[in-house]
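[audit] Reproducing an earlier prediction to check determinism. Same input, same settings, fresh worker. If the C-alpha cells differ from the archived copy the diff job will pick it up downstream; this log only records the rerun itself.
[audit] input (274 residues):
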Amino acid sequence: MIDCHTHTSYSKHGRGSIEELVQVALERGVSVLTITDHAPFHIDTDNRLLQREVGEYFNEIDRVSAMYERDITILRGLEADFIPGCEEALLGLLRDIDLDFLIGSVHYVPLDESFVRVWELPQLHSSRFLDSYFTSLRELVLSGLFDAIGHPDAVLRAVPEDRYCKMFTPLVPLMKQKNVNYELNASGLRKTVYDSTSGKERYGTWTYPSLKLIRALVDEGVGFTLGSDAHAPEEVGIGLEQTIVAAATAGVDSISYYQRRKRVNLPLAALRMS
C-alpha cells in the first residue's frame, strides 16, 4: 500500500511528528509513505511550513527514513498552494530543494479583492467562484511544475458532480499533455457534504473522488496518485482501500508514486492493507 499525501505538525494545523506517522503507517501495512506538508506560501502563514523551517523539515524526513529504511520507504514531498501568478515564487522555493513528489493544490480562489477558501462550502455554488477555481486548476496544470493535482474534486462537498465534471472535462487532455496526475484523495470519506437547501452539513456520504470523472481520465490515459491526506497519525492509510476498490470499478488499473520526481507505477491489484 502507498500513501502519498500526509501532513505532520510542520503544517501547524496538523498533529504528530514524522516518526509518529511512520509508526502508524507500519502498523497499517503502508510500505511507501510520502510526507507532504504544506509548502511556504504568502497566504495563511500560520498553517504551513515557514521558509526558515524547510531545511529542518527535510532533515527530519531523512533522519526518520534512515531509521526505518528496512521496513518502509519514506519520501520527501510538499503540497504547494497554487494561485495564478505564483509560479516565479514557487520556482524560487524549489530551486535548492531535492524533492521526490510535489502536489499542487488550489485552496484559495481569487475573487474580487479577496479569496474564497475551498472549505467555505456555502460559497462554492456561485458561477464566479467556479469559473475562478477552474481557471486556477487550468493554470496549475499548464505550469508544468507539479506531479499531481491534490484533491481537485474537493469542491464536490458542495457542487453537483455533473456540474463539476462538465467544467473539469476540458482539463483532461491538458493533464495528459503535461503528465500531471489526478490524485485519488481518500479524505472525502471523512468530510461533510453541504446541503444548500437546508444550509447544513452532514457526514456519511461519499463526496470525492469523482468516479464519473475518473472514467474520463482513464479513457484519456491520465495517471493517478493516492493519498489519505492525513493530518494526524491516526488518519494515515484511512480510506485508501475503499478508494482503490471504487477506482477499480471506474477502470483504474494502476497507481503511481514518485521518487526523485520520477513516476513509479504499481498495479492496482498489488495494493492492499495488512
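[audit] rerun output stored. Observation attached for the diff report: The longest strand covers residues 73-81.
[audit] end
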